[in-house]
Structure formats: C-alpha cells, structure tokens
Amino acid sequence: MSSKDHAARRILVTVLLGTFTVSLNNSALNLAIPELMRVFDAGAARVSWVMTLFLVAMGMTMPLTGFLADRWGGRRLYLLGLWLFLGASLLGAVAANLAWVLTARGLQGIAAGLMIPLSLPLIFAVCPADRRGRVTGIWGFAVMIAPAIGPSVGGLLLELSRWQALFLMNLPVAVLALWSGHRHLEAGRRDRARRFDLRGFLLVTLGMGGVLFALGATSSPDDLREAMRWGPLAAGALLLIAFVRLERRVAHPLLDLGLFAVRTYRASVLVACAQAVATFGCLLLIPIWMQHVQGHDALTTGLIFLPTALMAAACSPWAGRLVDRRAPRGVVTLGLVVTAAALLGLAALGPEAPLWLIVVLMAARGAGLGCGYLPVTTVGLNAVPDTRVAQASAINNLCRRLASSLGVVVLALHHDLRTAQLLAQGASARAAGLAALGEAFVSLALLILLATLLASSLSSTRREVTPDHDPLRATQNPRR
C-alpha cells in the first residue's frame, strides 16, 4: 500500500471518529427528554428544544461552511467544530439548569453544522474519483450504525447513571478524533481573496432559522391557527427567496447556486431530498403505527429500527464499490425501488401483522437506504470540481434538511386531520389510524418512485466539470 493510501486511510478514520460521535450523541440524547422533564420540572414543549435547538443551530450554520472552508481551510474548520463540540459536551455535563443544557445543545448544533458538510470534502480531497464510492460506503457504515446503537447506549447509560452521562460519553471519541485530526488532516487549499457575502449570510441564516423554527414547533393542526407559527415560516420563506435572488447577482456568493447547472449534481440533490423525506417521515410514522395500531410497546418500537440501520450499514460499502465500477444509475435505482416496495408493504399490513414480517420490511428499507442515499450523494459531488465540493456538500445538506423538516410537518398534519375525519365518519380509532398511516406510507412510496426517474439522469463517477473546462462559468453573472 502506497503512502498516499495510508494517508487517505488515516484521514478516513479521523473523519469517521468525528462524525460518529456527533451522530451517536444526537440519537442517544432523545431518551433523556423524560428525565430532563423530571429533573428540571419542565414541560415537554420546553424540554423538546433539546432536540429542536440542535437542528435549528445546525441548519443555520451549514451555509457558512463553504466560505469558511475556503478562507480558513477545511482542516482548521473541521477541528474548530470538534473543539466546539467537545466544549459544548462538557458544558452540558456540568449544566445546573435547563437553560445551560439548551445552550450546550445549541453549541453542539453549531459544531455539527461545521463538521457534517466537511466530512465528505475532507475524504474526497485525498481520494481519486474512482475510489470515492468505496470510502464513502465505509463512512456511511459509521453514519448508519451510530443512530442505530445510540438509543441502546443512551438507555443503558440512563439505567446505570444520570442524564449527564449522555454528554460525557462524547469525550473519549471526541478527544481521539481531535488527536488524530491534528496529526493527520491535511491543510488543503485556501482562498484568502474570497470576500464574505454578509447580505447573503444574514438572509440565509435568518431564513433557515425562521423556517426550521416554525416547522419544528408545528406538530398538530391546532398549531396552524397560531400567528406565531405562520410569522416565522412566512418571514423565513421570503428571506430564502431573497437569498436565492441575491446569490445569482453577487460576485462572491455565500452558496454557489450555479452548481445546480450541473445535471448530475442537480438530480442527486433532488433524489437525496426525496430519500430524506421518506427517512424522517418513517421516524415519525412508524412509532405511531407500531404502538397505536399494532399495539407494541416502546421497547419493541425502538428495536424495530435496528434492522433498518444494520442493513443500511451493511449495504452501503457494497453499493459504494458498485459506484466506483461506473454503475451509479443501477445501484441508486435499485435502492429507490426496494425502498418504495418496503413502504408499500408497510401500507398493506393489517393491524394483526406478524412481527417477523415487519422486521423483514424494515430491513428492506435499510437495504434500499444503503444502496440509494450515499451513492447518489457521492455521484453528485463527483460531478463538480474539487474546488467546489465543500460548497456542493453544504447545499446538499441544507436542501435535505429543509425538505425533511417540511415533509415531517406535512405528514404529521395529514395524520391528525385524516384521523379526525375518519373518526367523524364513524370509524374506530384503530381503523382511522391505520387508514391515515397507510395513505402516508403510499405517498412516501410514490415520492420515491418519482425520484427513480431522476436517477436515470445520473452519469458515471467521471466529473462533468473540470478546473480547465468549467461550464458553471456560463451561468455566472458577467459582472463577476
């Protein structure tokens, strides 16, 4: 193995450590909400900001990563995010009140917003295009496994200790990631001449914050009657529209939306958004379906997600190797079709469905996710020049976050409204819930099937643009 291969492997392990600790922490901390309600004598709405604030802070930070990575370098920015995540974890562990816990979660969200979009660009910087699918598949294994074991780890720690342990468990892996990062991450290219797009930053940050805040606080039809929900949503949407218009005119945009001129990248983002809606939609629908319709307890409901994560983790490296062999269309299409079939299977199950059949369908969902999610992202990032991978990754993450947040709200509102309508027509609570959830699963399956049409436009892993011949320049304003 050459020295370059050794360097690439060390960087891959470094990035895996950082990504793993962020993903593990976020999934494990979900279980602490009831404990935090008891300890701080607070209601569910207030304590739920432990999760919501993390997501909002991450979404508001992501637009900065492309600019900061160009100015400071990806290595420096990634390590800054790791240090911030470590410090925020310590703050959460010693927090004496809920306000400090929320502050720690906000800082963790900022750190995650810096780290997550840079994970793949750091790996891609040391990997040739014909091997990126393989290493991304390995990275995907860690990304899929962490949320799967997070609830189990969190539950065990809560049984053996207190909620502070959920913050302290980040420290060993974070310290190891910092040591490895300072030792192995390469400095990379820096663009000191790039100017900061202050207007764009204010528009996209406030816009993302307003939209994510409004969507995160909307969980029932009654919420739509409150002006405080519509105000941030409308303001955020208008700010994002203004941001898009601004970025098409400025000489140094915060986010280069001209990347959407690349057909493969554009298709990859749209497919990834569809998959994000289905994935997060299932995180909302399946617990309701398992407990209210199927009658299973919370432990069984939590364990039912394990086959999905394990199959996704197992299939991701295999799918990555297929991408390297110039077969992205086939593997992504296969993943989407399997995902749609699993969703249709869930929609067809009755209230007395055997648990083994549910496990099979959840495993099929995981196989589809492993074959579709990371491969399509890899192909999209391979289609843009290396100098724009950080920008492309940040835009991909932002689009997925907006799409999934909107999708979850729409699905939640549909469930409540449709259930209420069927109850008014005389249906039993169980039958109404089953019908509403079945319709939601079918809708998600149709969305995934529509995404398969976009998958047919994916090219091979060869770039559509190169530094010497960059058709994106044709989309830029002549005043640049």
From TrEMBL:
Its main location: membrane. It is found in: Cell membrane. The keyword Transmembrane helix applies. The keyword tRNA processing does not apply. SUPFAM superfamilies: MFS general substrate transporter (SSF103473). It is a multi-pass membrane protein. Residues 11-463 form the Major facilitator superfamily (MFS) profile domain. Keywords: Cell membrane, Membrane, Transmembrane, Transmembrane helix, Transport. The chain crosses the membrane at residues 48-70, 77-100, 106-126, 138-157, 163-179, 200-218, 230-246, 267-290, 302-319, 331-349, 355-377, 398-414, 434-455. PROSITE patterns: MFS (PS50850). PANTHER family: MAJOR FACILITATOR SUPERFAMILY MULTIDRUG TRANSPORTER MFSC. Belongs to the major facilitator superfamily. EmrB family. This is DHA2 family efflux MFS transporter permease subunit. It comes from Halomonas kalidii.
